[in-house]
Write a structure and sequence with these properties.
Elements (H helix, E strand, L loop, with lengths): L1 E7 L4 E7 L4 E9 L7 E6 L4 E5 L5 H12 L13 E8 L10 E2 L2 H10 L7 H14 L4 E6 L9 H4 L5 H7 L8 H15 L7 E7 L3 E7 L2 E5 L22 H8 L4 H10 L2 H6 L5 H9 L3 H25 L4 E5 H6 L1 H9 L10 H4 L6 E2 L8 E4 L4 H13 L1
Parallel strand pairs: 1-6, 6-8, 9-12, 12-14
Antiparallel strand pairs: 1-2, 2-3, 3-4, 4-5, 7-8, 9-10, 10-11, 13-14
The structure holds adenosine-5'-diphosphate.
Length: 397
């Protein structure tokens, strides 16, 4: 069964065509700068051959039309006709409280998704445009929505309720939703497979560390708590996002600096995190290089990041009532031995020992704690597209 996975952002569309018999990637691509000058599509097939289409992409519809042309390209494509594609799996950022699992999309569901855009104004509208356009261009294919929030929908009430007047939860749905759910689900299941135990029997903490970072406590196979909240802003300090801060800082700063709601939002989302603290970069490679050369604020940003992870791991171990596996994933979690070592050293008091040689690896599945440690520390590269394709396949079968 051929499944197209589509991740529609505000100015880009990532896609992957998968053959789900063997879970093979037939091709993957990216349409970028949609609606901006200099737009193009870059695609790579399973032979590693690249197709670059420099073309004006004024909107998502034109972009998707051209993506379908690239997919069916006689030389660089993977199918001769889009009719061969059975289903399209769409990444949808916010499923609110209504969607605790993936769904096959129909007209009624699109309306519900549109109503929910208020909760994710930057992300859900392009996701919906992607769904509607694929319905139009591929009417034969089932369209499935896979939500970033769905895996966290099982969180208990005490984990998702904020201590603000309860009426705001009832009126506006203000509560913790959590994000990166597709990744937390994929990684926790894969970790259980590697450990050879049912995921339901394990207590797992997943650290998804990338430009956006979140941690989840996975118990009984579902998310019991997670560090992101009503929006993807709280939790760990990120590339440019604050993570947890005292909320009173916001009105204080707005008053002192005479900032509008948009301006403070921009500071919290785009100018904070490790970029804000270091004044240097949001990229951990730059920070690690600078810290090594003695840049104190780069070092401060890195140690704040690690310290925040350490605190969450401590808290979630207590919340889960123990810990079997601590898993690192995402661009930083998979690639930075330095971040992993900084975090794991804090747990030496439990008897945890790092296998330095195994930790000295990048982008690979590997157990990095020594045998006999009280819990297993490991790296599991995430694969959100595969998870979306699996969920899509399950629903359309
Ligand atoms: P996104 O959240 O956008 O999906 P990724 O998961 O791709 O982000 O992570 C991107 C981040 O991974 C980069 O900002 C960079 O800081 C980090 N990263 C990638 N490779 C390395 C590396 N070798 N060492 C340290 N950090 C790395």
């Amino acid at each position: 069964m051929l499944i197209l996975v589509v991740n529609c952002g505000s100015s880009s569309i990532k896609y992957k065509l998968m053959d789900m018999e063997q879970e093979n990637v037939l091709l993957s691509g990216l349409a970028e700068r949609i609606g901006i000058s200099g737009s193009r599509i870059k695609q790579e097939n399973s032979k590693g051959e690249e197709l670059v289409l420099e073309q004006d992409l004024p909107n998502h519809k034109v972009a998707l039309e051209n993506i379908l042309k690239c997919i069916t390209d006689a030389k660089y494509g993977a199918v001769s006709d889009v009719i061969e594609i059975k289903a399209v799996g769409h990444r949808v950022v916010h499923g609110g409280e209504k969607f605790n699992q993936s769904v096959v999309i129909n007209e009624e569901l699109i309306k519900v998704l549109e109503e929910m855009s208020e909760l994710a104004p930057l992300h859900n509208p392009p996701n919906i445009v992607g769904i509607k356009t694929c319905q139009e261009l591929m009417p034969h294919a089932a369209q499935v929505a896979v939500f970033d929030t769905a895996f966290h929908a099982a969180m208990p009430k005490e984990a998702y309720t904020y201590a603000i007047p309860y009426e705001y939860y009832e009126k506006y749905g203000i509560r913790r939703y959590g994000f990166h759910g597709t990744s937390h689900k994929f990684v926790s299941r894969r970790a259980a497979e590697i450990l050879g135990k049912p995921v339901e029997d394990l207590k797992i903490i997943v650290c998804h560390l990338g430009n956006g970072s979140s941690i989840s406590a996975v118990g009984k196979g579902v998310s019991q708590d997670t560090s992101m909240g009503f929006t993807p802003l709280p939790g760990l300090p990120m590339g440019t996002r604050t993570g947890d801060i005292d909320p009173a800082i916001i009105p204080f700063l707005m008053e002192k600096e005479k900032l509008s709601v948009d301006e403070i939002g921009n500071i919290l989302n785009k100018k904070s995190g490790v970029l804000g603290v270091s004044g240097l970069s949001s990229d951990f490679r730059d920070l690690e290089d600078a810290a090594q050369q003695g840049n104190e604020r780069a070092e401060l940003a890195l140690s704040m990041f690690a310290y925040s992870i350490i605190k969450y791991v401590g808290a979630y171990t207590a919340a889960l009532g123990g810990l079997d596996a601590l898993v690192f994933t995402g661009g930083i979690g998979e690639n930075s031995k330095n971040v992993r070592a900084r975090v794991l050293k804090a747990f030496a008091y439990t008897g945890l020992e790092i296998d330095e040689e195994k930790n000295n690896s990048r982008g690979k599945e590997v157990i990095i704690s020594k045998e006999g440690s009280p819990f297993v520390a490991m790296v599991v590269p995430t694969n959100e597209e595969l998870m979306i394709a699996r969920e899509t396949k399950e629903l359309v079968q």
